[in-house]
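Collaborator request, handled under Task 6.
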Amino acid sequence: MQIKTAVFVKSSSEHQHAPPPALPEYAFIGRSNVGKSSLINALTGRNSLAKTSVQPGKTQLINHFLINDEWFLVDLPGYGYAKVSQTEREKWRKMIDNYLFERPNLLCTFVLVDSRIEPQKTDLEFMEKLGTNGLPFCVVFTKTDKLTKTKLASQVAAYQQKMGETWAELPQMFVTSSVDKTGCDALLSQIVEWIPTFQKP
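Structure tokens returned to the collaborator:
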């Protein structure tokens, strides 16, 4: 897929205030500081489409970006960010869950995980919640340019083994880097493949 246009449309604090569900959309989410904004910018070829920051927790709303006038890329707040109050974390959790469970045009959620670290409880629990509720998702490994091929293969295998303990079938997985754009074409190709399956609510 060639990204011809990528336009910020709206930030919403509730899914009811998001753009009308007339187009398919794909959500991107992960623990804070996983490199989500950088990957979104790499995917779209826009250096500043999504706001990046050295300080985790920058994304605090549901952000919709219209891609090629065909589909929405949705940037969701990160989870597992400890440097906010319990009240704020709970507010974010409800906002995210309401969007994921109630958004009728959401085709898939891409769950980003840092390839450099071992499987994290927060990531596994979040994916378990998606699977238990029958919500389609894929796993996206980020920051893979920081690892050797051997180490990366080991990290991916560790995730597959860990998830295989409870999952009968593993979700699709992508290996990506926002630095050299590894995996961006494969991820976008999958998005294109799913677009025709969309049926307006």
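The cover message to the collaborator said: "The two ends are 25 Å apart (CA to CA). Residues 53-57 have pLDDT under 50 and may be disordered. Please let us know whether this matches your experimental observations."
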